[in-house]
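Shape matters. Shown next:

___
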Amino acid sequence: MDQTSPPQTPHETTPPVQNNKKKLMIIVIGGGVISSVLIVLGLYLRQTNTELKPTPTPDISPTNVSSKPPIINSFQEILTKNCQKIATGSDSYFYGIQPDLLPVSFDPTAITINPQEQGTISCGFFTPENPNKNFVSIEFNTDWNMNIYDKNSEELGHGGPPFLGSFGQTIQDKKDTKLTIYLSLGEGPTEVKDIGVQVRGERKLPLSNGETILMNVSDEAIPGGDPRLMAILNKYQTTYEGYSVIDSSKIEQIQEEIVKTFFGDVNKLQSPEKEIVLEIQQILKAVNPK
């Protein structure tokens, strides 16, 4: 007998049939499970795909981007090009410029320009023979005046305080704004009772061309004759041709005392200086560089 294979018996052919049925049931059952898994997986992937759908990119086409061009010419070039001779009579004239040609804009809720002839504003001491040293002087609201200038601007000789720059004793100096005070003196000796205190605000205006220009505005904060002010001025008075005036050599000392007395803390001012300082600060903020 061959010993390499076990003897075959008749009943050994039956178990394979039962095993096949079990395998068939397992395959059927397993197929159903796999189908269910595939269906669930498909639903999950569909939901995930919906959740991960990319957010639409906002439209940044040129129509939705500010097309406002930057300033190309310098402040002085703008004035030299646009300050025009404006006649005010048969033999009188001044040089003026349209406000919208300036490299700044004005908040109309705070500043109402009072234009001169032909809707212009004054180009200061402008003459074609003296280019690149100019500034503009703007009358606005009621009895206010503003100057816009740069480091090259010049003013011709005149009495009183300078038109341009900061002037007097500093009461506040921040990043781009500066407040100063000075005595309102006339061109000659001024009687003590007529001397008031002016506040000047100056602000730096950085333009889109990289240039920085400046503006200033001044107004009287303490009027002449104010008893609080007189108490200080009377200590420094002298006599000139029969009039009571202050000693001109003591002006800086007087202004320092005024700062300590009235403006030591700009946030705790009294009236009327409080209202004037607040208004100057609002005006400074109402001029916007282009």
